[in-house]
Amino acid sequence: MVTLLTTPADRELVITRTFDAPPARVWEAWTVPEHVREWYGAAVLTTTVVDIDLRPGGAWRWGQTAPDGQEIVFSGTYEDVLPVERLDYTEVFEQMPDAEPVRVNLAFDATPDGGTALTSTSFWPSNDIRDQALAAGMEAGVREQYDRLADYLTSM
Q1: Domain annotation for the chain: domains and CATH numbers
Q2: Residue 130: its pLDDT value, please?
Q3: Listing from the earlier edge strand, what are the strands of the sheet with 86-93?
């Protein structure tokens, strides 16, 4: 399966991927800390933080640590939670704490063959910030993470 990243409008980034697993399984993999620890981030890093308070107003925090001890942590707040359908949340890269949050809408849509079309639509503070994230390797990182998720879903 292919992970696609597109920039269809100003400040917008859309990531799409179809998984060979039903929406309930993809939802569980995305929202239960024990599962997230198994697929999140880059394989060369160690996932050290997965905190999830899955409710509107609840906080989330996911992070990894590099072999040199550098931490790469993202966090935010859930704005809307529709189980097995949609998550709306904010996201901040903690190493840039003064940055304006990215707003994310994550949709878990059933496909006719029993899989899940996962669509992440994010709204960035500016085109420049979005484009800087893409230029810094975000696309390769997202592709690796979604490949890891696809592999993990087969073992759940």
Answers
A1: 21-124 (3.30.530.20)
A2: 95
A3: 4-6, 12-19, 116-123, 102-110, 86-93, 71-82, 59-65, 46-52
Rounded Cα gap, residues 142 and 104, in angstroms: 14
In one letter, which amino acid is 43? A
Q: What token pair was written down for 38?
A: 């198994």
Supply the pLDDT for residue 98: 85
Q: Is the pTM above the cut of 0.85?
A: yes
| 68 in Cβ contact with 60 (< 8 Å) | no
Q: Using CA of residue 35, residue 38, residue 42, residue 47, what is the dihedral sign? A: positive
Tokens describing residue 53 = 């308070």
> Does 18 have pLDDT greater than 90?
yes
- CA count, 13 A, side-chain hemisphere, 105: 7
